[in-house]
């Protein structure tokens, strides 16, 4: 034997003995003696590969093949694949296959490289070729490949084919269980994971799969035990920490889910699904900035992940960054056109932007892809509601309720729609159901709707406390923390979505204009859409500063208010449409006040005061309010004494009213009319021959229902007349003169509509209720000097209405008194009212400056 061959044999013996470093020395000796010994170069490459010296291994393999091209095998391809050099690996496999086309191992290696290069069709063909050559080479690769393309049915068949050859191949059983899970064959998947655990009970990945599956099956205790087992076997299994976090989310324990998500990401910072899940939890916790950051981390890891773009869009929507949200949803849909959630989000953004037709089309698209997407049915209902298409809205909410009866706020919205349509077939049971759910701490109804349903101030208080605690708790970090500002003037900011043609604006415009600018600096924070109405322009001139904030996030608005060192922040919305309660939850001002827009308690610890009077909140009911009460001496309601009443004289004929006969009217929103109130009204009409009831025209269905219900109560449908819309508020005020008496509703009184009537010279008959919303008209009547029109039970209300209608002299005396008081009594004295509410602000401010906590107080007249 030659010396070179002897050195080569010694090298092979060293390799077989597991001594690669010694083998390299022998290979080097052989090559020193015979540099063209291709086998020695090949062996040297294998030795270097075994030691992890990959570049030297590749160089040695290249030299071997250069010396002896027919010396082929898959080893170079394997090495290059492990190095991530997939194009070179593919070329190496192709060279092997060109010389040895029946080498199954080379075809398998080629498949693996093609997968890495995302050339899936070629990879499938390579795998099929390998199995045709050597069925015993079956491996789970084909299944993995098909599963990666979401071709789960084919992947399942591939795993079954592999397992038919190798029935104890644990990797294939494990992957098969995951595919069955994705195919929603949950029982089969569970059996698959059990099979894996029967083969290998200590496999943590199998316990992980079992935990994920049991979570989906809502077998939460067993799921938790499975995750615990997985982590006991492998404490650094990031995916098991992720699963534990997901389980806590399912159990509605979002706060607790943060820790396992953080643990998962500390172990595996590139675990994209954990970032996505973390973002979803932050959304649930209303920590939208953090949610946005988590979604963006997920997108850095996988820029084409449509679900992460979807999550980002939701964050931006919640942050009121509508333009960015719309673009983000469009990006998600460009990646995945059938992503129903992105169509839903797009519809919600378009709804916010008042682009109703586009919003409706987007919700319809979402439902085309997922007919059971509850939120899209709700979105559809929201659009129809805003367009006044109540029948279609109700049908959409019916569908949503059938899919998800416990969706927050939905039951109440559904009931209010029925009330808008005057559909009373199950009114009592519907109300009882809403009230019962509220008492059981189920947030099925928004607080504003609840005020119209429950007459109980205590129920309203309890429910508001629960609602705000669940949906609008104080921020973890408050913006104002006890600092005492030193300003020459008291800085007041009013926050409203209604700085436009809206009842709140009509009431308050004069007050804003009359604020004492020597003592107060006033700011309007408009969180509603901008417009160019006459009222908008008037309000813009009434304030020292007018902040357009509709496109700013809650956090941005709160930060601006804190930076401006606002002393007193007034919420004119409460829980009415367009409200932004989370601005106040961040405590941007030392004193925060609820006023006018919402007729009840906020239930929020961050709202310090509510502005009231002793009629709407008697002393005995102070316990029904979380706020301290600033009592004004007359009525709490601001009014504008400059409101114009048109000189147009509307004849009864023009209004559709009979020329003779008594005209009762009520221009309240139709949802305030209950069957109990309507019963009263029909009894009154029955006892006043020739009388009619004049109501606001709202929707055709309600008109049909009210006429039908009148007939059912023995009153001709012709005696129910509907007031059509007129061109201006001044015309609407003028036509009140065609009526004789305004009949109020309960449990939700006339508010602005009552002051409209009194300003126009039309007396209002009310029954005072238990809660604030049912005592407003009484407040107005006291302040205009007509307490005799306040009744305290339904019989007194009915009797007084009939008496006034039957006794013209009584009505004449009341109207004369109203005409005399209208311009002299406190109700419509805007300047007087402004000084009184300013006195309330000064009292609040002085307590705050002295470091004293808020306290109930009375402003003297």
Query: What would CATH call the homologous superfamily of the largest domain?
Result: Tetratricopeptide repeat domain
Largest beta-sheet characterization: 8 strands, parallel
Query: What's the number of extended β-strand segments?
Result: 14
Distance between the termini: 123 Å
pLDDT < 50 runs, ≥5 residues? none
Mean pLDDT: 90
Query: What strand line-up does the widest sheet have?
Result: 3-2-1-4-5-6-7-14
The first-level CATH class of the largest domain is given as Mainly Alpha
Instruction: Give the domain tally.
Output: 4
CATH topology of the largest domain: Serine Threonine Protein Phosphatase 5, Tetratricopeptide repeat
**Shape field:** elongated
The helix content, as a percent range, equals 55-70%
Strand content: 5-15%
Number of helices: 40
Q: Compute the CA-based radius of gyration.
A: 38 Å
Question: Structural class, judged by helices and strands?
Answer: alpha/beta
State the CATH architecture of the largest domain.
Alpha Horseshoe
What can you see in these coordinates?
By secondary structure, the chain is of the alpha/beta class. The model has no long low-confidence stretch (mean pLDDT 90).
Give a short synopsis of this structure.
With 861 residues, the chain is α/β, with parallel strands linked by helices.
């Amino acid at each position: 034997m030659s010396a070179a061959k002897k050195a080569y044999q010694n090298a092979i013996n060293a390799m077989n003995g597991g001594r690669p470093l010694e083998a390299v020395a022998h290979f080097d000796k052989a090559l020193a003696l015979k540099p063209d010994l291709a086998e020695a170069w090949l062996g040297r490459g294998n030795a270097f590969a075994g030691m992890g010296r990959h570049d030297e291994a590749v160089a040695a393999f290249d030299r071997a093949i250069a010396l002896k091209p027919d010396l082929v095998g898959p080893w170079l391809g394997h090495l290059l694949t492990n190095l991530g050099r997939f194009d070179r690996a593919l070329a190496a496999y192709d060279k092997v296959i060109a010389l040895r086309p029946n080498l199954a191992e080379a075809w398998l290696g080629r498949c693996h490289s093609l997968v890495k290069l995302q050339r899936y069709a070629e990879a499938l063909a390579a795998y099929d070729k390998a199995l045709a050559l050597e069925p015993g080479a079956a491996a789970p690769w084909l299944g993995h490949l098909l599963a990666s393309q979401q071709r789960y049915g084919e992947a399942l068949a591939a795993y079954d084919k592999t397992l038919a050859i190798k029935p104890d191949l644990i990797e294939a059983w494990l992957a098969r269980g995951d595919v069955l899970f994705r195919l929603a064959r949950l029982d089969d998947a569970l059996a698959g994971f059990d099979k894996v655990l029967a083969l290998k009970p200590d496999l943590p990945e199998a316990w992980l799969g079992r935990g994920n599956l049991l979570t989906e099956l809502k077998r939460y205790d067993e799921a938790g035990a499975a995750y615990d087992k997985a982590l006991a076997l492998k404490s650094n299994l990031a995916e098991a920490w992720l699963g534990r976090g997901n389980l806590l989310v399912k159990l509605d324990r979002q706060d607790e889910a943060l820790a396992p998500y953080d643990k998962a990401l500390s172990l595996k910072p590139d675990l994209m699904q954990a970032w996505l899940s973390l973002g979803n939890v932050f959304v649930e916790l209303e920590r939208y900035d953090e949610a946005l950051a988590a979604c963006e981390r997920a997108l850095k890891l996988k820029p084409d992940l449509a679900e992460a773009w979807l999550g980002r869009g939701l964050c931006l929507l919640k942050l009121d960054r509508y333009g960015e949200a719309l673009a983000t949803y469009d990006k998600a849909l460009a990646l995945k056109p059938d992503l129903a959630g992105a169509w839903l989000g797009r519809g919600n953004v378009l709804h916010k932007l008042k682009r109703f037709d586009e919003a409706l089309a987007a919700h319809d698209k979402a439902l085309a892809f997922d007919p059971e997407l509850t939120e899209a049915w709700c979105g559809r209902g929201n659009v129809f509601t805003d367009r006044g298409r109540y029948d279609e809205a109700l049908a959409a909410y019916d569908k949503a309720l059938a899919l998800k009866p416990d969706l927050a706020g939905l039951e109440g919205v559904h009931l209010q729609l029925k009330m808008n349509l005057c559909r009373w077939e199950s009114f009592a049971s519907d109300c009882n159901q809403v009230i019962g759910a509220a008492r059981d701490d189920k947030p099925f109804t928004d607080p504003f709707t609840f005020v119209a349903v429950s007459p109980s101030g205590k129920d309203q208080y309890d429910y508001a406390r629960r609602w705000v605690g669940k949906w609008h708790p104080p921020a973890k970090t408050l913006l104002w923390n006890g600092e005492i500002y030193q300003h020459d003037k008291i800085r007041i900011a009013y926050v409203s979505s209604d700085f436009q043609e809206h009842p709140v604006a009509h009431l308050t415009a004069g007050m804003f204009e009359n604020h004492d600018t020597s003592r107060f600096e006033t700011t309007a924070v408009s969180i509603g859409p901008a417009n160019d109405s006459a009222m908008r322009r008037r309000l813009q001139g009434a304030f020292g500063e007018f902040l357009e904030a509709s496109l700013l996030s809650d956090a941005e608005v709160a930060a601006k208010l804190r930076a401006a060192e606002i002393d007193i922040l007034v919420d004119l919305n409460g829980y009415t449409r367009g409200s932004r309660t989370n601005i106040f939850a961040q405590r941007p001002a030392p004193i925060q006040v609820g006023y006018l827009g919402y007729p009840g308690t906020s239930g929020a610890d961050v709202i310090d005061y509510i502005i009231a009077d002793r009629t709407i909140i008697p002393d005995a009911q102070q316990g029904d309010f979380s706020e301290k009460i600033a009592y004004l001496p007359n009525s709490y309601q601001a009014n504008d004494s400059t409101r114009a009443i048109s000189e147009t004289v509307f004849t009864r004929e023009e209004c559709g009213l009979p020329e003779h006969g008594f005209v009762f009217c009520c221009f309240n929103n139709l949802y305030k009319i209950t069957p109990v109130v309507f019963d009263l009204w029909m009894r009154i009409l029955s006892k006043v021959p020739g009388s009619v009831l004049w109501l606001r025209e709202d929707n055709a269905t309600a008109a049909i229902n009210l006429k039908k219900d009148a007939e059912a109560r023995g009153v001709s449908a012709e005696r129910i007349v509907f007031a059509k819309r007129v061109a201006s508020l001044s015309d609407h005020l003028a036509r009140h003169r065609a009526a004789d008496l305004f009949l109020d509703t309960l449990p939700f009184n006339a508010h602005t509509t009552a002051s409209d009537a009194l300003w126009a010279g039309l007396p209002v008959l009310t029954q005072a209720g238990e809660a604030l919303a049912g005592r407003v008209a009484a407040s107005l009547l006291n302040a205009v000097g007509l307490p005799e029109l306040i009744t305290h039970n339904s019989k007194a209300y009915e009797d007084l209405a009939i008496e006034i209608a039957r006794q013209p002299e009584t009505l004449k005396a009341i109207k004369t008194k109203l005409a005399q008081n209208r311009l002299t009594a406190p109700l419509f004295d805007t300047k007087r009212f402004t000084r009184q509410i300013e006195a309330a602000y000064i009292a609040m401010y002085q307590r705050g400056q002295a470091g004293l906590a808020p306290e109930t107080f009375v402003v003297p007249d």
